[in-house]
Design a protein that fits this description.
Mean pLDDT: 81
Strand content: 15-25%
Low-confidence stretches: 381-410, 484-498
Number of helices: 21
Largest sheet: 11 strands, mixed
Shape: globular
Number of strands: 20
Radius of gyration: 25 Å
């Protein structure tokens, strides 16, 4: 607020992590401006109908009555209201009517999750036309990056070191800062892999392990197979997530869980599975239901265990008791992932921990490792017409998001999931990875080591506990390890270092740790590999033996432990 009132502040962009209190900030600014007679009216623009109602309720608690039922064709509203709450789509329907209203009064326009103003040219143009005469505009976002290159209205762009324009925020409050201030919860990501089998549109049967290096289309098909309600993967992961929720509720009695599904059919199927697991009905929230907002509000206020939703709870919706999540959707853009995880990070009491279950897909694990990275909206080139939106989208995704659009097209093709099984893979926390050498069965003691982590822990305590369990497991595995090949065979026999599969698992684990180290320190992968070779000896990872690979894995884990300490 000091930064806001110190400057001219006709336009102000506040970028703050989900759960940091953007609504409270905006309403505090509005109340101060009203008190100083610097504005007469307030217009709040939100992405969805539910958020529009949520804003009106929050404003009412702050003594600022807003009309959430206002529409452009309505014209006037009751004199009891100081302002209105509308959606971006509603503004685009009749921007001229909104402009006339904005011109009549000294208006503060609050643009919530302003990146949505670039969702379509009609939305962006409508917002620009409607609110160009506003006395003040306050833009808010928790995710100031988009998956296209449409400029966001009233946001300042400045060229970076590479000459490409990037959004410039007036104030930024990132996840890492909020975590240090105990404003948000630390997030524990639990990744699950497993064997997947499916039949392609050509009739071929394909088997692959979720999380292995695959082409983008095969990765997408493996993920769709895992999320198929008729397979074994999703019931196993939902059961594990419910076990985690039970543990969290020992310390946080009203903690709730949320499953984010790809579509409505999957959401209903997941709800049935949760009923079989828990014996309780799950709240199902579908975007086309009239009672969707009431269901979310009811779930936020009761103490039931699970809610299943498609997109209604992906952004901005305030359910502070959500503590356990299952990311069960094929949507894998950084924007959506950040919005989804943002539903679980809002802190109520110190020490609460959020747990999010994710498929062991490299793309998603990369997003999880980059939770603390701040992003800006990057403009590649201008968009000239509605048809050009899709060309720009495809260009950027092909370059920066590794073919997400191609995978999206794959979702439309005929596809038959044949079977799946889940295996617990690893835990990601604070840019590091914790687990074991290889996957373990669901329900095993190794899995329960992580599902049973207390629901109230400070970030430093969480790091120490994960490192301790990592060390304990390494000692157990070393004590139970069979004799080496050199010890078990006569000296004159020809021995093999390891099987191809064992080497592949070790290389994959090493590469994953190197990637996590990169996300944590910014050090290039090649430099990290070279440093490990220098300290541990041996050739490049592609031709190193199992003993050399294990030595490098242990060494980089030691680095992570020292850095965390």
């Amino acid at each position: 607020m000091e930064k806001y009132f110190d400057g001219p502040s006709r336009d102000f962009l506040a970028v703050a992590t989900p759960g940091a209190g953007k609504t409270t900030f905006a309403l505090s600014v509005a109340a101060e401006l009203l008190g100083r007679r610097m504005i007469d009216r307030i217009t709040v623009v939100a992405p969805t109908e539910h958020l529009k109602l949520q804003w009106a309720e929050a404003a009412a608690r702050a003594g600022i009555p807003l009309d959430p039922a206002y529409s452009a064709g309505k014209g006037r509203t009751s004199e009891d209201y100081v302002g209105i709450a509308v959606t971006y789509a509603g503004v685009a329907v009749n921007p001229l009517a909104m402009r006339i209203r904005t011109e009549r009064f000294k208006t503060l326009v609050i643009l919530d999750e302003v990146h949505h103003a670039g969702d379509a040219l009609s939305w962006g143009e409508g917002v620009r036309e409607a609110f160009e005469p506003a006395a003040r505009r306050l833009a808010l976002t928790g995710t100031p990056f988009r998956s296209d290159v449409n400029p966001i209205p009233f946001v300042t762009y400045a060229p970076g070191g590479d000459g490409i324009p990037r959004s410039v925020a007036d104030y930024t409050y990132g996840y890492a800062h909020a975590l240090a201030d105990h404003v948000v919860r630390p997030v524990l990501f639990l990744a699950y892999s497993g064997e997947m089998t499916w039949r392609t549109r050509a009739g071929d049967e394909v088997a692959a392990r979720l999380g292995e290096p695959l082409t983008k289309d095969l990765t997408n098909q493996a993920l769709r197979t895992a999320l198929d309600p008729s397979g074994s993967w999703i019931p196993s992961v939902l059961a594990a997530a419910d076990s985690r929720l039970t543990e969290v509720r020992r310390h946080v009695p009203d903690a709730g869980g949320l499953v984010i599904a790809t579509d409505q059919d999957s959401a209903r199927s997941y709800a049935k599975t949760l009923r079989q697991i828990t014996g309780q009905s799950a709240t199902v929230v579908l975007s086309d239901e009239k009672a969707a907002s009431k269901k979310i509000t009811a779930f936020a206020e009761d103490d039931s265990r699970w809610m299943v939703a498609v997109r209604m709870v992906s952004e901005g919706v305030d359910v502070p008791r959500l503590a356990v999540g299952v990311y069960a959707t094929t949507t894998s853009t950084p924007l959506f992932f950040a919005q989804a995880v943002g539903r679980f990070v809002r802190a109520r009491a110190r020490g609460e921990v959020a747990s999010v279950f994710v498929p062991s897909v490299p793309r998603l694990l990369g997003f999880a490792s980059e939770m603390e990275v701040e992003r800006d909206h990057v403009l590649g080139r201008t968009v000239s017409d509605e048809d050009d939106i899709f060309a720009a989208e495809n260009d950027l995704l092909a370059e920066a998001q590794q073919g997400e659009s191609a995978s999206a097209e794959e979702d439309k093709l005929p596809f038959e999931a044949l079977g799946s099984e889940a295996r617990f893979d690893r835990v990601l926390y604070d840019g590091g990875e914790f687990g074991h050498e290889g996957e373990v069965h669901v329900g095993s003691e190794e899995e329960m080591d992580f599902l049973g982590i207390p629901g109230l822990l400070e970030p430093s305590q969480m790091r120490e506990l994960l490192q301790q369990r990592q060390s304990d497991r390494a000692r157990k595995q070393k004590a139970a390890a069979p004799p080496s090949a050199a010890q078990a065979r006569p000296a004159d026999s020809v021995t093999q270092v390891s099987t191809h599969e064992q080497l592949a698992v070790l290389r994959r684990e090493l590469n994953g740790l190197v990637a996590a180290w990169h996300h944590r320190t910014g050090q290039a992968h090649g430099i990290t590999h070279a440093a490990l070779r220098k300290e541990c000896g041996g050739p490049a990872a592609a031709i190193a033996n199992a003993e050399q690979l294990r030595a490098r894995i242990d060494r980089i884990r030691d680095w992570a432990a020292r850095k965390s300490g």
